[in-house]
Amino acid sequence: MLKDEEIKKILAKINAGNATEDEKSLFLKWYHTWDDTQTKVDGLGDVETLHQSIWDKIEGKRKVRRWDSRRFIRIAAAFAIVGASSFAFFYYSGTNEKPLELSNAVKLGGNAFDHVTINTSVADFLDTSKYVNLKELNNGDKIGDISTGEAQFIKIQLPDGSKVSLNAGTKIHLADDFRTGQNRVVYLEGEAFFDVSKIAGRGFIVASKGQRVEVLGTKFNIKAYPNQKQIVTSLIEGSIRLQSDDELQVLKPNDIAYNTAGNIAVRSEEVIPNVGWRQLNFEFDNEQVEEVLQQLGRWYGLKIVFKNRIPDLMISGKIPRGTELKDLQLILGNLTQAQYQLKDNVMQVKFNNN
């Protein structure tokens, strides 16, 4: 574990632009394992508040600073720009108790045009024991398609007992022989977390555009949205075989696989990032700014329009559920050096100096 003085030195080098890749990696590893319930800073008077240094996180365990503001927001740490405008790091923690507003009426459909509408709620999605059981639904045996729109999330239990959580803007399709075939095949477009029930002699396959994941019984997350540059597969427990058009990789727990046009790169993490969405928290780990903003658009039901060239900026950070859109605009505007304009559910983004 890094000591406080070591963290300070690394952060100083990061801000000066001369940190090594190993030092950046150490800093991010410290960040992912840091107890984010410790330091809280109340209030947000203006954009400059976002520059409250990570020093406060290191120095002031339990330290509280206050600003006179109608918005009552807590910020634990600010952000650091690593290298030449290539990487951004942030953490935001809000006190706002307003729940994330979800669209209800998630539609489940079958090959025979049988449709079931499911009303969703934040409480149901966050309740680890609550899943929509397809077997218990009217005509549930005919349902083969489950999809979520913008600001929609759902957890379902498949006919084989496997459990799936669907992020916003996600579609899954059960193969026609899912219930009886030798392999249980699911087609995925978007992001989903799978907790697969083990059935002797029956494999479980998740097929996305450009890859197949084969399992027997395990927990894993796949992010495979349309137009996404990479398919990201994170293994929580068990073992999976990941196959693209060009490669085959066997993942072990805490492995993350990045599939870029058939080329698979695997890295191992002490803590798997990017699954905070299951608690309705935004969590990004070294992701392109374009993909981060598109994900936020799916969550908030916004169309993202880029007015000029998108910079090659990578973002890591966390934002909890309940964060109001106006506060999110303020944080991202300062973080990404961009102007954000919202009108009629369309968010226009214009990057500065571009």
UniProtKB/TrEMBL annotation:
FecR protein domain mapped to chain residues: 145-241
Listed GO MF terms: sigma factor antagonist activity
Domain (Protein FecR C-terminal) ranges: 282-346
Keyword Transmembrane helix assigned: yes
Source organism superkingdom: Bacteria
Keywords: Membrane, Transmembrane, Transmembrane helix
Membrane-crossing segments per the record: 72-92
Segments forming a coiled coil: none
PANTHER family (alphabetical): PERIPLASMIC SIGNAL SENSOR AND SIGMA FACTOR ACTIVATOR FECR-RELATED, PROTEIN FECR
Protein name stated in the entry: FecR family protein
